[in-house]
Amino acid sequence: MTAHANVAQLIDHTLLKPDATTADIERLVAEAADLGTYSVCVSPNLLPLADARGLKVATVCGFPSGAHRADVKAFEAAASVRDGADEIDMVIDLAKLKSGDIAGTEAEIRAVREACPAPVVLKVIIESATLTDDEIVAACRASEAAGADFVKTSTGFHPAGGATVHAVELMAKTVGGLLGVKASGGVRTGADALAMIEAGATRLGVSGSREVLAGLA
Fold first, then answer.
1. Which catalytic residues are annotated (predicted)?
2. Which domain holds residue 73?
3. Catalytic one among 93, 96, 152, 192?
4. In 3D, which of 132, 63, 85, 142 has the Cα closest to residue 109?
5. Among residues 10, 15, 124, 190, which is most buried (max CB within 10 A)?
């Protein structure tokens, strides 16, 4: 298998613009199928998809701020699963984490986990660019304790920025292979993708997947 194909199979081909239409999503799915990506990631209001073309379907929860009640996130996640989502990418309550309420962070992740049990894949978006190293570690440990499957760097919408090699390395070291690590936000070139994978990313959130994969040809 080529490097191009290997990287494609790690990509959640993503369109989360708030004005994305059903027609836009149909084009996204067609492009994802053509590129051979692992999944498509879309907003929950665009579910269910008419035809996912055999791709996994991911969606977001508590997006993009994370400033939602845990029971609202749980309800949203469960509704998305009923609408065909295979994977849920939830945003944590950043204020809760940054105020030191790690138990509260773990509790909200667990609430979403209980609302969408396995085999649904749960990814926890921690907005790593806003966190100290200690906070990144705490968020990863809370995610693991609550039963998540992945920790994810970023929404791609926060002004602080997206994924960095340092954050991915720290997240990968903290979870020690027990959870996956998704690098998202700012992965725009083939070199970016390879750097994140080298740092420990096991999934990539990418909107410009064709351009990223073209850089690996």
1. 89, 152, 182
2. 3-214
3. 152
4. 142
5. 124
The DSSP code for 96 is H
Active site residue 192: no
Q: Does the predicted TM-score (pTM) go above 0.90?
A: yes
Model confidence over 66-92: pLDDT tens digits?
999 999 999 999 999 999 999 999 999
Marked catalytic residue, from 73, 149, 182, 192:
182
Domain count across the chain: 1
Cα separation, 186 vs 130, in Å, equals 15
182 is catalytic: yes
| Two structure tokens written together for 137 | 């570690």
Nearest to 102 by CA among 67, 69, 146: 146
Query: In CATH, what number is assigned to the domain containing residue 9?
Result: 3.20.20.70
In this structure, the chain runs to a length of: 217
